[in-house]
Protein 1
Amino acid sequence: MAEMDPVKLMKQEVGRAAAAKVQSDTVVGLGTGSTTAFAIQFLGDRLASGELKNIKGVPTSFQASVLAKKYGIPLTTLDEVDKIDIAIDGADEVDPQFNLIKGGGAAHTREKIVDGLAEQFIVVVDSSKLVEKLGSTFALPVEVLPMAVAPVTRALTALGATVDLRMGVNKDGPVITDQGNMVLDAKFEAIANPAEMEAHINNIPGVLENGLFVGVATEVLVGEVKDGQASVR
Ligand code: 5RP
C-alpha cells in the first residue's frame, strides 16, 4: 500500500485529536479546510461506532455541510440551538496569544459567527502556522460586497497593505463566498494591534468581515512531522 504523505498524515492526526475531545449530547461547530475535514471524518467514525452519541453540527461553510452529510453528522442551525459547546476549525496564522488569521478558504465570515459562539474553540494547525506577529506570512482575507471592491481596496491600501482580489484556481474569475461576495487579500508587513485592526477594517463601508479572530480560540492543537513521523502537541 502507498505510504501517506507525512503532511497529510499530520493533518489527520490533529483532526483525530480534536475530534476525540467532542462529547456526546453536544452541539459542535464544524470548521472549514483540509485539517478540519479530518476532524469531521473522525467525528463521523465515532458516531458510526457508537462511541459518540447525539451530536449536532453547525457548519461554517457549504464545504463543511457537504462533508458532515457525507460522514453522517446530523446538522442544525443557529435558529435551532442557543449555544455551541465546542467548535473545531483550522487557521492560517496563530500568534502566541492564540489570535488568528483565518479565511484561506474564504469562509471566515461564517467561521467567526460559529467559532465565536462556541464555549470551547479548538484550533487545528501545523507548526508552520505559528507566527510571532499576525500578518507576517499570510495576507489578511477581507470579505467585501462586489460593488465595493474598488473603494475597499483603496482603503486597505491606505492602511499600508498590498491588496489582491482573490481569484479562483483557474484565474478566470474571482472567488465567490457562500454569501455571494468577494475576497480581498490584504498583505501587511505585520499587524501590530490585531484587535484595533479587526475593528478598523470592519468599519470600512462595504466590508462584511475580515479574518482576524482576536480572543476567540481557547485551545490550539499543533501537528508536527519529524523524521516522517506525525505528532500532536
Ligand atoms: C477557511 C479557513 C481554514 O480553516 C484555514 O484556511 C486553514 O485551512 P487548512 O486546514 O486547509 O490549512 O480559515 O476559511
Protein 2
Amino acid sequence: MTAKGRSTTLDVFPRAKASGRKLAVLTAYDLTSARIAAAGGVDAILVGDSVGMVVLGYETTLPVTMSEMIHHCKAVMRSDPGVPVIADMPYGSFHVSPEETVRQALDVVKQTGVNAVKIEGGRNRTEAISALLAAEIPVMGHLGLTPQSINRFGGYKIQGRGAEAAAQLEDEALHLADLGCFALVLECVPAELARRISARIGIPTIGIGAGAGCDGQVLVFHDLLGLFEGLKPRFVKRYAELGRIAAEAVGRYVEEVRSGEFPGSEHEFGDAREKAPGEEGPASGQVYPGAMDGGGD
Ligand code: KIV
C-alpha cells in the first residue's frame, strides 16, 4: 500500500472484483502523463500500444515495437506512480512462438519493472498466455475489438454482435479467466454481452466501449483530456479540452515573443554576483531551485 492508500500490486484487481468497487484504469506513456494519472487517483496504469497512434503518430498500433514499449514503460516507471503498471505486448511480440513471447515479455518486465503484460486475443493465444504465466508474468487479457487484428476485422468494428459471435466471445472470456489472466479488457462489445460476461467470470472486466456493466473502465489518456484529434470514438468521454487550451497558451507565448512582452525582467538573470529579481538570500547561480548545482556563482 502507498501513503495514499493505493496498492502498487495487482491485488487491487481481485479485491475490487470481490467488493464490487469499480476500477478506474488509464493509459499513460511518459513521466508527465503517469504523474497526472496517479494524481487523479487511478487504480492502475496501462502503457498501451495506443502510444503508437497518440504519441508516435502511426496510423495504427501495428508498427509499435517492443523497444518503443520499453522506452515508454521506463519513463512511466520513473514517475513512481504508486499503482500497478501493465505493459501492452505489441503486435508481433507474441505471435512467433511461446518461447519468443516469454523472451519479449521478460525484456519489458526486467528492464522496466512493470507488474504485468496485456495480450490481445482469446483461444488463439492460449500457448502464449500459458507460457507467460509459467514464467511468473501476470497477464491481462483483451477481447472484442482488438486493434492489432484490424486487418482481419476490416476496420474498427463492434465485436460480439449476434448470438453466435456473442457466444464465442463469452466462451473466450471464460477461457482466459480459466487460464489464469488476472483481468480482462473488453473493447467495443455490446453492453449487454459485457454485463453478462462480467457477471459470469471471476476476474474483473475492464471495459472500453463496453458499457457500465463491466467491473472497471479504461480510457486513453489523450482521449480523456482532449489532446488527440485523430479518431473520436463514441465511447470516449472527453473530460477536458486540453489540446485547445494548450494551443491558446502557445498562441499567447508567440504573440508576447513578437511584441517583446516576454521575457520580462522577472525571467532575466543579472550579474553573477547579483541576486536575480525575486531571488531570496545570496545569489546562488541555480537556474532550477532545488536541482543539482549547475556550477555556482
Ligand atoms: O493500447 C491501449 O491503449 C489499449 C486500451 C485502449 C485498452 O489497449
